[in-house]
Design a protein that fits this description.
By secondary structure, this protein is an alpha/beta fold. The chain is about 35% helix and about 25% strand. It has helices spanning about 10-20, 45-55, 60-65, 100-105, 180, 185-190, 235-240, 245-250, 285, 295-310, 315-345, 355-360, and strands at about 1-5, 25-30, 40-45, 75, 85, 95, 115, 120-125, 130-135, 140, 145, 165-175, 195-200, 200-210, 215-220, 255-265, 280. The strands form 4 sheets. It has a 7-stranded mixed β-sheet with strand order 5-4-13-14-15-12-16. A 5-stranded parallel β-sheet has the order 7-2-1-11-17, with helices on one face. About 45% of the residues are buried.
Length: about 375
């Protein structure tokens, strides 16, 4: 039995492709149930990674029915509210709600394959097996262990001493319900897809979501400790004091709490020596900032590639893991470099000019 710790997009893609090919696996996830918490905002799913993974799971057609129309449209603004660039999107990177994508992957798995309310608190190597301890006091053993358990992975310490480091950027998440009726200023800023407003090493990102909702992130260069305090609207008003009134109105009128989201990452090129019986995928292997839009896509293609390697070598897991890692390590390194470059573009002192130059075709 293959044991997967983490029921996010990467772990579920792995389980789905394995199940489709008749290979048994079990997924342990800390969530109480499949619907016990919100899964996050919109994701753009790339052709050569996320979409390729969905194709391997036999879910690409169903995915297409769940995407948000015009979700890949983009606009870039500066702090004065002037729209500096617009792009209607070409459909190559369709947008989908993260929760809807997770539910799609879950729908491809038989009941009971994912064990909910199974928070791993510790893992020990016992000769040729691994002993997993759970928060409820139960234990499980396995000889084949895959860590798909995100940034603060419990599996990673078996392979690597690396820990996530703070990127220097923190987001504050704001959500808007019944947006067209209740939040016309925010709707006008965001447009029909994604919005980036960039100036003076600060940013406001926004996105249309299904069900007439918006999500906006205020992004700041602040110390790591900043996000550990209670975040108020007055604090955001001070950080964006010289921005256009419409941004202030949007930041002042969201629904619900302000949610801090400090951005962490693993070192670029993070890798480990081959260790029998265990490997990592997704954020557990290569956590990076969101400024290349690669996190979910890489997790899914990791899951699909790892599944294909296991399918090709079902009696030689070490060969399967080695082949998977040989593909995953350089791909993750390149994406992490792209992500770091994207962060620099967004928070340069002359922003949004560098970002405009990036997206403007050269003659």
């Amino acid at each position: 039995m293959i044991t997967i710790v983490g029921g996010g997009l990467g772990g579920l893609t792995l389980a789905s492709v394995l199940h489709r090919n008749g290979i048994a696996a079990i997924v342990y996830d800390a969530d109480l149930t499949a619907t016990s918490r919100p899964q996050g905002g919109m994701l753009d799913i790339h052709q050569d990674t996320g979409q390729a993974a969905l194709q391997a799971a036999g879910l690409l057609e169903a995915f297409g029915k769940l995407t948000l129309q015009h979700g890949d449209a983009m606009r870039i603004l500066d702090k004065t509210g002037v729209v500096r660039l617009t792009h209607d999107g070409d459909g190559s990177r369709p947008e989908i709600d993260r929760g809807a994508l997770r539910n799609l992957l879950l729908s491809s798995l038989p009941p009971g394959l994912v064990r909910w309310n199974a928070r791993v608190t510790g893992i020990e190597r016992k000769e040729s097996a691994f002993k997993l301890s759970f928060a409820d006091g139960s234990v499980a053993t396995t000889q084949i262990l895959i860590g798909a358990d995100g940034a603060w992975s419990k599996v990673r310490p078996l392979l690597s001493e690396a820990s996530p480091i703070y990127s220097g950027i923190s987001f504050v998440e704001l959500r808007y319900l019944e947006a067209d009726e209740k939040h016309p200023t925010a709707v006008a800023l965001v447009g029909k897809g994604m919005m980036m407003a960039l100036s003076d090493e600060r940013a406001i990102f926004g996105h249309r979501e299904p069900n007439n909702e918006l999500c906006i992130y205020a992004a700041l260069k602040v110390p790591a400790e900043w996000s550990r305090q209670a975040i108020s609207r007055a604090m955001l008003r001070e950080h964006f004091h010289d921005w256009h009134y419409d941004f202030h109105q949007a930041l002042a009128s969201s629904d619900g709490d302000l949610l801090p989201r400090p951005i962490f990452m693993l070192p670029q090129g993070h890798r480990w020596p081959r260790m029998p019986g265990v490997t990592l995928l997704g954020d557990a292997a290569h956590l990076m900032s969101p400024f290349a839009g690669e996190g979910a896509n890489l997790a899914m293609i990791d899951g699909a590639d790892l599944a294909r390697a296991i399918i090709a070598h079902p009696t030689d897991i070490e060969r399967a893991f080695a082949e998977y890692e040989a593909t995953m390590f350089p791909r993750a390194r390149a994406a992490a470099a792209e992500s770091a470059a994207g962060l620099e573009l967004a928070f340069e002192a002359n922003a949004p000019q560098a970002m405009l130059d990036f997206f403007t075709p050269r003659g």
